[in-house]
Amino acid sequence: MRITQNTLFKMYENSEKFTVLTCYDAIFASILENSGVEVLLIGDSMGNVLHGESTTLSVTLNDMIYHTRCVARGSNKAFIMADMPFGTYQASPEQAFENASKLIAAGAHMVKIEGGHVMAETINFLTQRGIPVCAHIGLTPQSIHQLGGYKVQGSDKNTARQLQQDAKILEKSGANMLLMEMIPAKLAKKITQTISIPSIGIGAGADCSAQVLVLHDMLGIYQGKQSTFVKNFMVGASSIQNAVANYVQAVKTGKFPSKEHEF
Ligand code: KIV
């Protein structure tokens, strides 16, 4: 049976953590879902881990459509989320709808878009027209030149308050989930407690409703710089399937992320 938004929301209501991993092709879609991963994210991190770029900015809508189709073909259980790449949704809600609908047609069940309160109108437009949205705040890699580097966000009073306000505004605008990247664990916990939609953390501590990692990071095969929040689950594992199952188990039992993986 296919995992739907309702399945994930029920898990959230029962305080059962769900797991997310990035996925870009059919074979991994089947490996990941058969090892217990509930959500497959076709991340624009493909720019880094598949294309060898130093940012996600060159990933195109056609790249995303192609990889979403591959993942959808290889999956018959997981919930499928696809990133909207840079430049395909920021101009207007209408632009976002036109492009998001292509990802949904390719097999995504939800799209993810980066940005705080400025994205509220777009999220409202999409969700009112049948496209579920995960909002992504904190470190938003598509704004890397504006942020000046891959740094922890929300570590001072003002930026922490802004992130809390953004989370509430995005929830109110209709966001179905909230992803928080590289923010202090205490702040992520506070935000998770004040919203009524599932939070997904990456470098945001153990108190989020779900966790996500980039597949190539958790398999220890990405050659670039590794962040503090990454754990290589291949260490001590007998196979990729075993490593992924260990990740799922560690998230569900609250063993990952541990203090060493948080800010
Ligand atoms: O593109 C991606 O892989 C992501 C994760 C970092 C959450 O957005």
- Between the first and last Cα atoms, what is the distance in angstroms? 37 Å
Helix content: 25-40%
Number of helix segments? 11
Arithmetic mean of pLDDT: 98
**Percentage beta strand:** 5-15%
The hetero molecules present are:
3-methyl-2-oxobutanoic acid
Largest sheet: 8 strands, parallel, barrel
Low-confidence stretches: none
- Give me the Rg, rounded: 17 Å
User: Could you say which structural class the secondary elements and strand pairing correspond to?
Assistant: alpha/beta
Shape, principal axes of CA atoms: globular
Order of helices and strands: HEHEHHEHEHEHHEHEEHH
Number of strands: 8
Strand order of the largest sheet: 1-2-3-4-5-6-7-8
Describe this structure as you would to a colleague.
The mean pLDDT is 98. This protein is 40% helix and 14% strand. Helix 8 runs parallel beside helix 9. The chain has 11 helices and 8 strands. The N and C termini lie far apart (37 Å). The chain has 263 residues and is an alpha/beta fold. It is globular and about 45 Å long. It has an 8-stranded parallel barrel, surrounded by 8 helices. The relative contact order is 0.14. 3-methyl-2-oxobutanoic acid binds next to strand 6. The site of 3-methyl-2-oxobutanoic acid has 10 residues, from strand 6.
Could you give a quick summary of the protein structure above?
The protein is α/β, with parallel strands linked by helices.
